[in-house]
């Protein structure tokens, strides 16, 4: 059947099984929008800013594991999308972004709304394409989805000149695609896996450190079985929360800059470290010179370039987390050797001592709302089963610390790029994917204003997201660093001239709530959750002076954490067995 | 350490800028780069010279391999290999310099490929050291311009970098 490029576009998305496309029209994509108008299969979600479109597609992808899809126009449409593309790139999120482009014969002429989208996005995509011939369009779309969703996932951009969307050709969508230059390794090397299993079984102070790769590969079940079979402590990175049930006793909390004392101390003292789908990010490792000084390290990752990039690894295993862990489990089951029970018992004693520090302790008085209390209350009321998105800063860390995720794809946060403005649009994507689930966006009064225009999108599509603003009238994390490291010179971190969020929410047609007293927190959240089909915007006025603890400061190692004022007294140190 | 990386690249628009962009984005340096299509017109062959520790070069090759347009890659300096570079050089050649320059060109087995009353244009092929030595040997001769192709390399033996 002969179709126009614009029709090939919609048909290809349909054949690819795309459910939603997040976008914003403009001159270069008008043919495509006309084709979208004439079909009903692919639902278009009209955002209010292209950054919102990319974050919404990203949130959809994180919540479902499917590829998020975005459509924006040329020029400013493309540049506005860049932040969201870079966000997805840093966190390895599968996404296909279509950018309109000026007509082929105008490219290079500085035409109206022309920008070199392929050039601008090159450093923050897994791959990108400029379509030069309508006959390549369907195959290019297939390639883009294939590249975005396989191997280490990531965003792929397709730039389509306007004339291509008007030209016609015979349409057929390829069922599968092979590329000579792209074939990710899925299966791990059996010899390496065997070596890893032997090393793991000989560990006296083992530690399992896992990241977003476990979630990307849907390997949480295998991970959980492995951890429980061995009885070893497990920690998750910010990106990996939910891969191992947070309420399980073998879970020692998140690690890294604002991780728990027990997770970081266990990292420091472990003798064997199994790293699964994590990339030794600087916020996780602290000072590399002090990182895991006694550990022999095993690293499972689908991206060979992540292995030995920051930290040299003794046993690298390239492959999909899920496949490699399955192999590992088979070998462990077949193995006669079992973990050293005495050594493990001593190791857990030591970890329990660190746990007894209660590093996340805070005190809720009856005057000022503690931000941690809001998150903890939400956690208790929702029984840990909400999809929680966040923006970036103090509230993000408190959400990660106090909301206990027992399942993967419940925690949606910009880890690598640290993009403020991510939370609410990401929640839109998650809510569209799961219309009946509770989606909460934990945010701050600074972050929320970076994509506040999406309140309008939420109204248009009736998305009943619950927004919890931890409003401390500061860019909290900036303020915290200024307090600690800049002698309390709070340079431009005070959020002056804040809007009345209640009225703002109401003006968009949502419910607004202002909560100022600790005693009102629980009731307000319960009240908000009753609103099944309305968005509720909760403005919690929180303690301005609260800081995120514990903390590894710059240049410090895992064992040099700064503890908060409410932590328990250091227990007497037991000798290492 | 100096490393020569040989790459088979999809011969597509923008492929070269992905390679160059990777080096600038990650702070690696490119000492020289030479690229041209191969007998298979869908593929380009690229020879890249870089400097760095073994760890850095390992990262470079891994990151290059991640680029979707990179089809195959080989670090030539890991094994026996041959490298060649071509240089075109235009010098002032008048008076007694004219005779002396001609002798030096012969010693280095170069060719004079263009002559005017006052200049020679010389073509010289060899490895980097030879080209550098030639420039040094010219001594006080006045050099008008130097054009170097960058290194091309190939592994010794019967194996080849191919699809």
Would you mind describing this structure in some detail?
The complex is a heterodimer of chains A (577) and B (163). Chain A is α/β, with parallel strands linked by helices and 577 residues long. Chain A is built from 21 helices and 20 strands. In chain A, the strands form four sheets. Chain A has a six-stranded parallel beta sheet with strand order 3-2-4-5-7-6, sandwiched between helices. A six-stranded parallel beta sheet of chain A has the order 11-10-9-12-13-14, with helices on both faces. The model of chain A has no long low-confidence stretch (mean pLDDT 97). Chain B has 163 residues and is α+β, with helices and mostly antiparallel strands. In chain B, the strands form two sheets. In chain B, strands 5, 6, 7, 8 and 9 form a five-stranded antiparallel beta sheet that branches. The longest helix of chain B has 13 residues, at 54-66. Chain B is elongated. The interface between A and B is medium-sized, with 20 and 19 residues.
What overall geometry of chain B do the principal axes of the alpha carbons give?
elongated
Mean pLDDT of chain B: 95
Beta strands of chain A, count = 20
Cα separation of the termini of chain A: 74 Å
Kindly report the oligomeric state of this protein: heterodimer
Poorly predicted ranges of chain A: none
Kindly state the percentage of residues in helix of chain A.
25-40%
How would you classify the helix and strand content of chain B by structural class? alpha+beta
Separation of the first and last Cα atoms of chain B: 29 Å
User: Runs of chain B with pLDDT <50, length 5+?
Assistant: none
Note the run of SSEs of chain B as H and E.
EHEEHEEHEEHEE
Sheet/helix structural class of chain A: alpha/beta
- What is the beta-strand fraction of chain B? 35-45%
